Amino acid sequence: MAESQTPTDKLARRGLMFILSSPSGAGKTTISRMLLEAEDEIKLSVSVTTRPPRPGEIDGVHYYFVDDAEFDRMVEEDDFYEWAHVFGHRYGTPKGRIRNALKDGQDFLFDIDWQGTQQLYQKDQQDVVRVFILPPSIAELERRLRSRGTDAEEVIEARMERARSEISHWDAYDYVVINEDAQACFAKVREILDAERMKRQRQTGLIPFVRELMS
Ligand SMILES: Nc1nc2c(ncn2[C@@H]2O[C@H](COP(=O)(O)OP(=O)(O)O)[C@@H](O)[C@H]2O)c(=O)[nH]1
Ligand SMILES: Nc1ncnc2c1ncn2[C@@H]1O[C@H](COP(=O)(O)OP(=O)(O)O)[C@@H](O)[C@H]1O
């Protein structure tokens, strides 16, 4: 290859909106963190929430924590791509600079529920990849929620109550992965990301590259 040509592993491509959803406690935060640690080329879309921080959660890193008045103001000013009520609090995806960054090939990871997934998909089908994580069993889901130790008993009960209705949305996703062993689940999620990055429609750099091959 001539030196002036772009290396083939650096061909331009559109970024993707990689959504991980699951019933609470199935492990999407765990898998998201593993993915963000392993992959330099994907950024977390940090959501805005009215829920109080859990121990160890940092404002601006895990969520932007705001009060109801601030959330109202952001809704009025059309600052959200989407937002939804979950467990008595509100959660939203701020618009930020996602659209322009996608064009530059930046991938974004979204840890959002099925309502947000639906809204993002309606707005931007070509860039969205939807992955749903299931627990290996309901008993294991409950064990994980308890072992996390972050929620009061009534919150755990509410999350278990809601788990079945969240699971019922599994068929609105492109991929479904069962999180039995976290490492194995992470490896599968990473394979999905790798394959989606290679989709022809996303590889905008292929057009000049193939033209050159055929000339
Ligand atoms: N629609 C929407 N859902 C969100 C957003 N951020 C977080 N969520 C969802 O809100 C739910 C509750 O999140 P959280 O309080 O962190 O508890 P978790 O279920 O243990 O992750 C999860 O299903 C998240 O995926 C957002 O910006 N939009
Ligand atoms: N494959 C797994 N095996 C055992 N425990 C897990 C696994 N994945 C996640 N956990 C644990 O289960 C709890 C809930 O996981 P978390 O990632 O917070 O779920 P979510 O974000 O879906 O609510 C955490 O304590 C986490 O360490």
From TrEMBL:
SUPFAM superfamilies: P-loop containing nucleoside triphosphate hydrolases. The keyword Cytoplasm applies. The lineage of its organism: Bacteria, Pseudomonadati, Pseudomonadota, Alphaproteobacteria, Sphingomonadales. Its EC number is 2.7.4.8. This is Guanylate kinase. Its main location: cytoplasm. Essential for recycling GMP and indirectly, cGMP. It is found in: Cytoplasm. Belongs to the guanylate kinase family. ATP binds at residues 22-29. It holds the Pfam family Guanylate_kin. It comes from the Bacteria. It comes from Qipengyuania profundimaris. Keywords: ATP-binding, Cytoplasm, Kinase, Nucleotide-binding, Transferase.
